[in-house]
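Throughout our pipeline, every protein is held as a single compact record rather than as scattered files. Such a record has a labelled line for the sequence and another for the backbone structure tokens. This encoding replaces a full spatial description with a residue-level series of whole-number codes. For reference, a complete record is included directly beneath this paragraph.
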Amino acid sequence: MTPEDLGARLLHRDGLILILDKPAGLAVHAGAKGADNLMRHLDALRFGLPRAPELAHRLDKDTSGCLVLGRHRKALARLGALFAAGKVEKVYWAVTVGGPAADSGIVDAPLSKLERRGGWRMVVDPKGLPSLTEWRVLGRAGRLAWVEARPRTGRTHQIRVHLAAIGCPVAGDSVYGRGTADLAAPLLHLLARGVSIPMAAGKPPVCATAPVPEHMRALLAECGWHPPTGTLDLSEN
């Protein structure tokens, strides 16, 4: 990824934060195998500041969309407090295989990390950490559903595990969605669609909306999605 590529993916820039449209397939942190990762490229986003921006939260490697960066330590401290307090509104879009029976609902299912010799995964566990996701169906087509998810907690793989737990795993999810790859969906169909951050009291929140990535457009279109003419309303329920 060139500095020009990274700059073209900026959705928001001010003196405190950057919001980046992270591409699917790019890890945010270095892994054990030394593959490319976003941290290698953040120096290109200093824009005159002495330090590169840092991650305020994380997205899975295969999830695309809105990723928030703090430009300096005070901004990172403010962002950390907002994320920890659940005051950052996050909206995800997913294409799922096997739509839920209802049109909206809440998954309230604690999650924990299950370690195995071949790796790890997150599982629903009554003794795990509290985890809650609100969801609603935006469109349907046969086996598929276009689902909007709003996580109220920030657990690893939360949306993927919660949607799989109610019988509608995310298309292209090789970990929690067995049987979804037959839909010509080799990539995970999960997008961090929007984010709203109340950075300053008494001022409007900082908002950004990520475009639908190319690999999700076909299945979303089957479910009734059309390229939007406006921006996402993050105040909607």
The chain has four helices and twelve strands.
